[in-house]
Design goal:
Layout lengths: L11 E4 L2 E4 L6 E5 L3 E2 L4 E8 L5 E7 L6 E5 L3 E7 L4 E11 L4 E10 L14 E5 L5 H8 L5 E7 L8 H9 L3 E7 L4 H5 L4 H13 L4 E5 L9 H11 L8 E3 L2 E3 L2 H4 L1 H6 L3 H4 L5 E6 L12 H14 L6 E7 L3 H13 L3 E7 L11 H12 L8
Parallel strand pairs: 4-10, 11-12, 11-19, 12-13, 13-14, 14-15, 16-17, 17-18, 18-19
Antiparallel strand pairs: 1-2, 3-5, 5-8, 6-9, 7-8, 9-10
Helix pairs in contact: 9-10, 10-11
């Protein structure tokens, strides 16, 4: 993907896999749904503004593409153009206000004959686990050999090397890190771009290993923020990690797929769906041991697959955390991971939190069976 570092006003930067003006003004903003396309494919340019004065708007293209106005409202417009010859180009939206102030939004794009890689990086699902670092070795010993991924929770507010030792240990053990970055609770700072620099440093470090790594921003965001806030933060933090063997995507609240799909939608706007490398959820059995909930993790894995297809995408799927009260629930979730097409990773949460999800007895045996299933993949 073409990527430019943010600079002075009038230059451009990367936002959620899209290329947008570096000033990222909330008053005027233009972006492309996809910045990398093939010849003959359609480019879609979106523009929003909050200007009160009269203004004129012009669209120019460095390659001479004809941009046709597709739709408009008082504060937004959409233009479309068909990509032609391969190479780089720039579409510029020039907004001239009545008082003479000019906003220039330069949005680069690339027309390439190479198909973007959105496939599962390995030949089947990586079955992994999450557990606190101080008991990680014990939990691995209990499960036994064969784990393919390790869920890791890091914090950009703690610096670019947050949880780097756990990430290196995962690589050394032949597991793919599934890394969730938060920002010390500073959502407003993330939306304002305060963590973009440290994200670049963290991404450079992860890329240096040359190993497959899944990255997400603020897992399970529902309840902490709105969908719009999550999208705004993701557009700032995640683009830095789209490099080399690193893949980015959301890990959302799986229970929203039960009966709150419209809410789930708000965390998956079209511009991000088009730029992400995978879509994931966390999913647990609800209720209690004696009265478990009706909806199970396996159902939500299938629902996620159906949802992504219904949106018109063929993206790899991930499960950052899952668990259940019974061996039956864990076995069913494992079967869903192993048999659902395009699942990239699925990590079981094997620890205490608000309830004790630590595996033992028949629940541990059920997870071992999933890990050792011949359909499960390894990083290599």
């Amino acid at each position: 993907m073409l990527r430019l570092a943010a600079g002075a006003a009038g230059t451009t930067g990367v936002m959620g896999g899209l290329l947008v003006p570096a000033h990222a003004s909330s008053r005027v903003r233009a972006w492309l749904d996809r910045s990398v396309v093939q010849p003959g494919e359609q480019l879609t340019l979106r523009y929003v503004e909050e200007l009160t004065q009269a203004r004129s708007i012009r669209v120019k293209d460095s390659n001479g593409l004809g941009w046709e106005l597709h739709s408009k409202t008082r504060t937004s417009k959409v233009w479309k153009a068909t990509a032609s010859a391969t190479g780089s180009g720039t579409v510029t939206v020039i907004t001239t206000r009545a008082d003479g102030k000019v906003f220039r939004d330069e949005v680069p794009y690339e027309v390439t004959s190479t198909t973007p890689d959105k496939t599962v990086p390995s030949g089947g699902p990586l079955i992994g686990m999450s557990a606190p670092s101080d008991v990680w070795d014990q939990r691995v010993a209990e499960v036994g050999a064969g784990l393919g991924a390790r869920r890791i929770f890091a914090d950009l507010a703690a610096g670019p090397n947050s949880q780097i030792r756990a990430i290196e240990e995962a690589h050394a053990a032949g597991m793919m890190p599934v890394v969730s970055y938060k920002v010390g609770g500073d959502l407003a700072g993330a939306i304002a771009g305060a963590y973009n620099g440290v994200a670049e440093q963290a991404a450079a470090k992860l890329e240096s290993y040359g190993r497959p790594t899944a990255v997400t921003f603020w897992h399970e965001p529902c309840g902490d923020m709105t969908g719009a806030q999550f999208a705004a933060g993701s557009r700032q933090v995640l683009p830095a990690f789209q490099r080399g063997e690193l893949k980015v995507g959301p890990i959302l609240n799986g229970w929203l797929l039960d009966n709150q799909v419209p809410e789930f939608d708000t965390f998956l706007p079209d511009d991000l769906m088009g730029s992400w490398d995978y879509v994931g959820i966390d999913t647990y059995e609800g209720g209690t041991v004696t009265a478990p909930g009706a909806r199970k993790p396996a159902e939500r894995i299938l629902a996620l697959s159906a949802y992504v297809k219904a949106r018109g995408y063929d993206l790899p799927l991930g499960v950052g955390e899952y668990n259940g009260f019974s061996a039956e629930t864990i076995t069913a979730a494992g079967e869903a991971l192993l048999s659902t097409p395009n699942v990239w990773f699925g990590c079981l949460w094997n620890a205490n939190d608000v309830r004790d999800w630590t595996l033992s007895g028949d629940r541990l045996a059920a997870f071992r069976a999933t890990v050792n299933d011949p359909r499960a993949a390894s990083v290599s």
